[in-house]
C-alpha cells in the first residue's frame, strides 16, 4: 500500500522510510541493481523502488526474500552495519532495535547485537490481536525455532497447521514454506524467536 506525497507522514510511514533506506544501503553495498534484486525475488522493480523510497510497506515475506538476496539475515535489516562491533556480547534493553511491520501488526525486536558476523539472531516477536504474516507462505535460508511466551500462535509449515499455547515451542527448516499468526481477537502473542543462517559447507 502506498502513500501520496501530499499526506502527512505518520509514525508508520517513518518506519517505512527507515526500512527503505536500510534496504537501499544494503543493495548498493552489495553492488546490486534494482533489476537484479527484482529478478531474484520475483518482486517488480516499481514496487522495490517504492519500498526503498518509503512509499510502500514491505511484508515479512518480502523482507525475508530481500534478506536472502542481500546476503544478510533478517537481523541485517535492523540499523546500520557500522553501528555494531563483531565482538559485541551484550545488547542492553534500551539499545534493542525494533522492526515494526505496522500494517501486519507485528513487531520484531532484535535481542542480539545487530550487524555482527554471526549467523544466529534472537528476536522478541509481538503479534497484536489477529496479526499475521498473511495467507501466502514464504521461505528463506536457515533454520528457526521459538518459544511462545504469551498468548497463542498458529503456525503453518507446509501442509501442517499447528496451534501453540503459552509454553509450547517449535523448530523447523526455514526453507519449508511457512506462515504464522495470532488467532486471538483480544490478546497479543509474544514469541521468543530464533533465526539461524546455516554455514555453507565447502564442496
Automatic annotation (TrEMBL):
<dbReference type="InterPro" id="IPR001387">
    <property type="entry name" value="Cro/C1-type_HTH"/>
</dbReference>
<dbReference type="GO" id="GO:0005829">
    <property type="term" value="C:cytosol"/>
</dbReference>
<dbReference type="InterPro" id="IPR010982">
    <property type="entry name" value="Lambda_DNA-bd_dom_sf"/>
</dbReference>
<dbReference type="InterPro" id="IPR014710">
    <property type="entry name" value="RmlC-like_jellyroll"/>
</dbReference>
<protein>
    <submittedName>
        <fullName>Cupin domain-containing protein</fullName>
    </submittedName>
</protein>
<dbReference type="GO" id="GO:0003677">
    <property type="term" value="F:DNA binding"/>
</dbReference>
<dbReference type="InterPro" id="IPR011051">
    <property type="entry name" value="RmlC_Cupin_sf"/>
</dbReference>
<dbReference type="Pfam" id="PF07883">
    <property type="entry name" value="Cupin_2"/>
</dbReference>
<dbReference type="InterPro" id="IPR013096">
    <property type="entry name" value="Cupin_2"/>
</dbReference>
<dbReference type="Pfam" id="PF01381">
    <property type="entry name" value="HTH_3"/>
</dbReference>
<keyword id="KW-0238">DNA-binding</keyword>
<dbReference type="InterPro" id="IPR050807">
    <property type="entry name" value="TransReg_Diox_bact_type"/>
</dbReference>
<dbReference type="GO" id="GO:0003700">
    <property type="term" value="F:DNA-binding transcription factor activity"/>
</dbReference>
<feature type="domain" description="HTH cro/C1-type">
    <location>
        <begin position="23"/>
        <end position="77"/>
    </location>
</feature>
Amino acid at each position: 500500500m502506498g502513500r501520496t506525497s501530499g499526506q502527512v507522514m505518520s509514525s508508520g510511514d517513518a518506519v517505512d522510510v527507515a526500512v527503505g533506506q536500510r534496504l537501499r544501503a544494503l543493495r548498493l553495498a552489495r553492488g546490486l541493481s534494482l533489476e537484479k534484486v527484482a529478478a531474484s525475488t520475483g518482486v517488480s522493480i516499481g514496487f522495490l523502488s517504492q519500498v526503498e523510497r518509503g512509499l510502500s510497506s514491505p511484508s515479512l515475506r518480502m523482507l525475508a526474500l530481500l534478506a536472502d538476496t542481500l546476503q544478510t539475515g533478517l537481523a541485517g535489516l535492523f540499523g546500520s552495519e557500522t553501528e555494531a562491533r563483531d565482538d559485541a556480547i551484550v545488547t542492553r534493553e534500551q539499545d534493542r532495535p525494533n522492526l515494526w511491520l505496522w500494517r501486519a501488526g507485528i513487531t520484531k525486536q532484535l535481542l542480539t547485537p545487530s550487524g555482527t558476523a554471526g549467523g544466529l539472531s534472537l528476536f522478541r516477536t509481538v503479534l497484536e490481536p489477529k496479526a499475521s504474516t498473511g495467507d501466502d507462505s514464504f521461505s528463506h535460508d536457515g533454520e528457526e525455532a521459538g518459544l511462545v511466551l504469551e498468548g497463542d500462535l498458529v503456525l503453518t509449515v507446509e501442509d501442517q497447521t499447528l496451534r501453540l499455547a503459552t509454553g509450547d515451542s517449535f523448530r523447523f527448516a526455514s526453507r519449508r514454506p511457512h506462515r504464522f499468526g495470532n488467532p486471538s481477537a483480544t490478546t497479543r502473542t509474544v514469541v521468543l524467536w530464533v533465526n539461524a543462517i546455516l554455514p555453507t559447507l565447502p564442496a
